[in-house]
Amino acid sequence: MNEKLLVGEKAAEYVKDGMVVGLGTGSTVYYTIQKLGERVAAGLSIVGIPTSIQTEELAKKVGIPLMPFEEAETIHLAIDGADEADPESNLIKGGGGALLREKMIAYLAKQFIVVADSKKMVETLGAFKLPVEIIQFGYKVTQRHIEKLGCTAILRVKDGKPYVTDNGNYILDCDFGDIKDPQPLELKMNMIPGVVENGLFVGMADRIITVNQNGDVEDQNCRG
Ligand SMILES: O=C(CO)[C@H](O)[C@H](O)COP(=O)(O)O
Predict the structure, then answer these.
(1) Residues 166, 98: contact at Cβ < 8 Å?
(2) Does residue 126's CB lie within 6 angstroms of at least one atom of ligand 1?
């Protein structure tokens, strides 16, 4: 069973005619975007706002009309994946390196739907190392400040070179062990000069679409 396909396609059902839709990044929301492409070809009228260059290319390929984020007055709905989700619907995101644009777009969205296969659902955040986007200037100094918060921070590397985000920044993957109380950490992290954004999404998800132990799609309303 392809859980990513199941949850990705389920989320596409929330997209209605006339919506401005935030398009997330990754291998789960890939299926949402594919499905939306099919629906656009069949007459659905939407405008997408991509959270990464990768997603922009995919959306163009499947025929979803796009608009620049800076021109958006509102986003009706944003759909995105997650690396981990805890029982309070707090998330770690940024495995794909798009956390900054993902958070900006989710923040503007009236509704934020997360698509997550069952492996992403955890009791406590932190087995997945927390991605933190930092500026390149003085990055080792920023790294030391971040480590004082109680983690080991490793510079993300791709093809033997530091990984550079769509925004021209570096990413540190930070091992805090269990993150039992994500909100203070999210705030403290962003107080450090040189930190642009971190991958903790606290209290942002409105729905999480996942797969339960019986193999059924479970559509959780995070607002009770
Ligand atoms: O945060 C992200 C990218 O920055 C992704 O949403 C997250 O990494 C999940 O990706 P996938 O659906 O491929 O497991």
Answers:
(1) yes
(2) no
From the CA of 93, give the closest atom in ligand 1: 1
Tokens representing 114? 């997360």
- pLDDT for residue 1: 84
**pLDDT on residue 224:** 82
24 lines ligand 1 (CB under 6 A): yes
φ/ψ of 154, rounded to 5, equals: -110, 130
- 137 shares a domain with 110: no
Mutate to test the pocket of ligand 1, among 4, 5, 28, 125 (most ligand atoms within 8 A of CB): 28
* In a shared domain, residues 157 and 76: no
pTM of the model: 0.98
| pLDDT per position as a tens digit, 102-125 | 999 999 999 999 999 999 999 999
> Which whole number is the average pLDDT over 152-171?
98
Which ipTM score applies to this complex? Answer: 0.98
**Ligand 1 contact via 51 beta carbon (within 6 Å):** no
Q: Is residue 181 part of a domain?
A: yes
Mean pLDDT throughout 32-37? 98
Give me 224's structure tokens: 């009770």
Find the CATH number of the domain harbouring 9.
3.40.50.1360
Section 38-57 average pLDDT: 98
Residues 20 and 104 in one domain: yes
Q: Does the annotation mark 197 as catalytic?
A: no
Q: What contacts 160, CB < 8 A, 6 or more positions away?
A: none
Is residue 7 within 8 A of residue 217, CB to CB? The reply is yes
User: Which residues carry a binding-site annotation for substrate?
Assistant: 25-28, 80-83, 93-96, 120
